[in-house]
Amino acid sequence: MITRHVATLILYDKHHKILMQHRSDDAPRLAGYWGMFGGGIEEGETPEQALRREIMEEIEYTMKKPEPFCTDEFDEEGGENDVIHVIAHNFIEKYDEVQPIVQHEGQGFGWFTVGEALKLKVTSHRHETLIRVREFLAQFSKKE
Asked: What CATH number is associated with residue 125?
């Protein structure tokens, strides 16, 4: 079994909406699904270094201080009936509205409440992450 490490960003705005990427229909993995921006961790990179590189490549966004949020482990199908064990390092950060989002990967993106995001075509592991995000964001609603 092959193990693949990835880093993703959960970016949320002042309205507690999260940024989601709509993957291209011809993407090598999870074509047509919605997910978070991010990608593979290269040899010698920490998860945060990989995340900073991927986010700059994908949306030209400079993160301020991404915080580790949760780590998910799951299996997905690879090519030629291989199974890939994925370890996803998920980070979270509040969106700096001064910076625009300039998308370079995927067929689209959008800002969604967690409830709206759960209705999109997402994988089961991303669904679980979104539930955790809803719990995280709920703490801010109680304070406001």
From this structure: 3.90.79.10
